[in-house]
Design brief:
The chain has 666 residues and is mainly beta. The protein has helices spanning 2-24, 383-389; strands at 231-238, 240-247, 250-257, 262-269, 273-281, 287-292, 295-301, 307-312, 320-323, 335-340, 343-349, 355-360, 367-371, 392-394, 397-403, 409-414, 422-425, 437-442, 445-451, 457-462, 470-473, 485-490, 493-499, 504-509, 517-520, 543-549, 552-558, 565-570, 586-592, 598-604, 615-617, 622-623, 626-627, 634-635, 641-644, 647-653, 659-665. Among the domains are: 31-59, no CATH class; 218-281 and 571-666, no CATH class; 285-432, Methylamine Dehydrogenase, Chain H. Strands 1, 32, 35, 36 and 37 form a five-stranded antiparallel β-sheet that branches. It has a four-stranded antiparallel β-sheet with strand order 2-3-4-5, with no helix packed on it. A four-stranded antiparallel β-sheet has the order 6-7-8-9, with no helix packed on it. The longest helix is centred in the N-terminal third of the chain and has 23 residues, at 2-24.
Length: 666
């Protein structure tokens, strides 16, 4: 660089000497012919005399690297924005913000309010796309906002909509004003968004659209129409009523008339009322009533052939003994009739093989012994066991308790064939009895209480294999028994009563040891609360049951948590329900009145939107029960109540302790 400068200075000096020589010699002036930077513009006209060699110049002899046309201090040769308005700040490329569009949205940077617009999106005059704007300030950008004009300050959902902008049930009343947000489609609503099917103006638990008595006084026991319950007497002054069942939509039952010494079959005809169908015999007992494929099967005696398997279709001619299994006057003692597939299964004694497993397809020829489990005339299934433990079906497998003479009472299964009838597992190894009971199904597993001879009576489960038959948990650790009972499944959870040493309390299980826990200690300390009469068929995945705390008996509810287990209505002392509570029906129990008489009480457990439970005296009718010697309290027989549709049948006692059957609307 220094050498170049030196050479230029030397050239200038030589030029000056030459001009001096020419001048002294009187020669012509050649200054207008000199072009020292060789840019083709003579120095006399060259405004940029030091142009680098080889660069193109304008008429003034200036190259781009010598010019700054827009005065932005960036020479023309590197200025990418040659027309920058005067006074604007530029970058290293000579560009100001008014000349740049960094996000290529067509709006220059200096007026672009959204400088990072994604490529390809349409923008407004401010350079903003919908995904960059939130016009109503609700936190949801315009491109996602289904409700673009949300009032200021209102909370919105992911779609940018507030409750004042939504009408989820499409009833014309916006959510923020809608007191009945789930109105069925097409129903007319009031200004609160409520239809008649959602309102209960008289608070009787029956909604307005079906309430035939809309002004029912508070506390009145009502039926499903919203009117005060009425009852009618069906049968009176008999010794026994049992075997309620339904065929072709009609209710049938068996009656023992002590006056005429007759066991009879009756039908509550929907048109004619109670109608005698058939007189069966003078024998007292009818048992094991089971409806299968439009026929009823039961154990009865005609007074000649003993207690055998009977079949009925609801008519006199179609009701008769199916087969005389134990021929002659001896009884087969049919018990535990259970349907599986196209057949019924039961225990019976043919007089040769003892009490064994039998099946029937509904014909005499198709009624056969499945297998002689305890060979010879020994009993594999005593009818008393079957009465208490019964049979349980999972898919196409029948589970039951049996004794083959070698292993004691153990868990067995059958697919209906001799080869497919086998012991599942020898739980109490050797000849000891496992005594399983309280059997139920959850998922694909059988749950039951059993005793392995080591851990006492505890909760077990089985998948039908020996390896899959295991104790779920030793609740009362060691040889003591927790004696789980009343197993009931609600929402994939098994509920039962058990005693871990704190008295019999409410427990639950998910089928694992860790998931088998006490829900809550209702009767604190070691006292028993005796959770019982679990509601079969939950209401809203809630378990209903009876239990006793320090204040006495009550109906309780539980969602499976301690905090979610609470008393919902107290019951009178010595108040006991029937065989079970009934969903969306009535709860009846016994109570001792001021005169020392047992009276019927009713509690409506139909749960709507509140936990309001009403109960009151039911017509001063005494519900059938076993009295003790003092006649001060009693427990009702099993199956003393039966529900069909909107009608409930109750077995009651009159003043002479004779049984009657009444029917009430519910």
């Amino acid at each position: 660089m220094r050498r170049g400068l030196f050479m230029k200075k030397l050239q200038t000096l030589l030029f000056a000497l030459m001009m001096l020589t020419v001048s002294l010699a009187g020669c012509t002036d050649l200054s207008n012919q000199v072009d020292l930077d060789n840019d083709t513009v003579v120095d006399a006209d060259d405004l940029c005399p030091d142009t680098d060699t080889g660069l193109s110049v304008d008429l003034d002899g200036c190259a781009d690297n010598q010019l700054d046309d827009d005065g932005d201090l960036i020479m023309n040769d590197v200025d990418l924005c040659p027309l920058t308005p005067a006074g604007e700040t530029v970058d290293a490329d000579g560009c100001s913000q008014s000349q740049l569009d960094d996000d290529n949205d067509g709006v220059m940077n200096d007026v672009d309010l959204c400088p990072l617009t994604p490529a390809g999106e349409t923008v407004d005059a401010n350079g903003c796309a919908d995904n960059q704007l939130d016009d109503d300030g609700d936190g949801v950008m315009n491109n996602l906002d289904l409700c673009p004009f949300t009032p200021s300050g209102e909370i919105v959902d992911a779609d940018g909509c507030s409750q004042s902008q939504l009408d989820d049930d499409s009833d014309g009343v916006m959510n923020n004003l809608d007191l009945c947000p789930l109105t069925p489609t097409g129903e007319t609503v009031d200004t609160d968004g409520c239809s008649q099917s959602q309102l209960d103006d008289d608070g009787d638990g029956v909604m307005n659209d079906v309430d035939q008595c809309p002004n029912t006084p508070a506390g009145t026991n009502i039926d499903s129409t919203g009117c005060e319950q009425s009852f009618s007497e069906i049968i009176n002054d008999v010794a026994n009523i049992t075997g309620f069942h339904v065929l072709n939509g009609e209710v049938f039952f068996f009656v023992y008339d002590q006056v005429n010494n007759e066991r009879t079959l009756w039908k509550d005809d929907s048109t004619l009322g109670p109608v005698l169908v058939k007189t069966i015999s003078s024998e007292f007992w009818i048992s094991s009533v089971m409806v299968h494929e439009n026929n009823v099967y039961f154990s009865a005696s005609d007074g000649i052939n003993g207690y055998e398997l009977w079949k009925g279709d609801g008519t006199a001619s179609g009701t008769s003994m199916l087969i005389d299994i134990n021929s002659g006057s001896e009884s087969a003692r049919v018990q535990g009739i259970t349907a599986m597939g196209d057949s019924i299964y039961f225990t019976a004694n043919d007089g040769t093989h003892g009490n064994e497993l039998w099946k029937s397809d509904g014909t005499a020829a198709g009624t056969v012994m499945v297998k002689d489990i305890n060979s010879g005339d020994n009993d594999a299934l005593w009818y008393e066991w079957v009465y208490w433990t019964g049979f349980t079906v999972i898919s196409d497998t029948l589970y039951f308790q049996a004794n083959d003479g070698d292993h004691g009472r153990e868990l067995w299964k059958s697919d209906g064939t001799d080869a497919g009838t086998m012991m599942v597992k020898d739980i109490n190894i050797g000849t000891g009895d496992a005594y399983h009971y309280s059997t139920t199904v959850m998922g694909n597993n059988l749950y039951f209480t059993s005793n392995d001879g080591i851990n006492g009576a505890e909760l077990w489960k089985s998948d039908g294999t020996a390896s899959g038959t295991v104790m779920v948990k030793d609740i009362n650790s060691g040889s003591g028994s927790s004696s789980p009972n009343h197993h009931t499944v609600v929402d994939n959870t098994l509920y039962f009563q058990a005693n871990s040493g704190n008295g019999f309390e409410l427990w639950k299980s998910d089928g694992t040891s860790a998931g088998t826990i006490m829900v809550t200690n209702i009767n604190s300390g070691n006292a028993n609360s005796w959770p019982n009469y679990f509601l079969i068929g939950s209401i809203g995945n809630t378990l209903y049951f009876t239990a006793t705390d320090v204040d006495g008996p009550a109906i309780w509810e539980s969602d499976g948590t301690t905090t979610g287990t609470e008393k919902i209505v107290s019951l009178p002392n010595y108040c006991y329900p029937g065989s079970e509570l009934v969903a969306s029906g009535n709860f009846f129990c016994l109570n001792v009145n001021s005169d020392g008489d047992l009276e019927g009480w009713v509690s409506d457990i139909t749960v709507q939107s509140s936990k309001l439970i009403m109960y009151g005296q039911l017509h001063n009718l005494d519900i059938i029960c076993d009295y003790d010697s003092a006649n001060t309290y009693g427990y009702p027989f099993d199956n003393w109540t039966f529900i069909h549709g909107n009608e409930q049948y109750l077995i009651i006692l009159d003043a002479n302790a004779d049984m009657s059957l009444v029917k009430i609307s519910i």
